[in-house]
Amino acid sequence: MNLLHIVGDNPDNIYAVLSTPFIYLSLKKCFWDGKKKRVLLWILALLANPLVSILLVAWLSSIPYTYAIYPLYLSITRTFPTKYFGVLSMAVLMGILCALMLLLLAWISRKWLGSKEFQPILFLYAMFGVINMVAVVRDFGEGSFYSNPYARDELGVFSIVVMLLALFVFYRMDVAAFSKFSQVSVKVNWKVFIIPPILFVLIYPSVALLTVVYSDDELNVILLIAFSAMIVFLLIWAFHVIIKNITAANEIKTLSVEVMEALAHTIDAKDEYTRGHSVRVAKYSRLLAQRLGLSEEDCENVYYMALLHDIGKIGVPNAIINSKSKLTDEEYAVIKTHPGVGFDILAEIKSRPDLSIGARWHHERYDGKGYPDGKAGNDIPYFARIIAVADTYDAMTSNRSYRKYLPQDVVRNEIEKNMGTQFDPDIAKCMIAIMDEDKNYEMHE
Question: Does the reported pTM lie above 0.70?
Answer without folding.
Answer: no
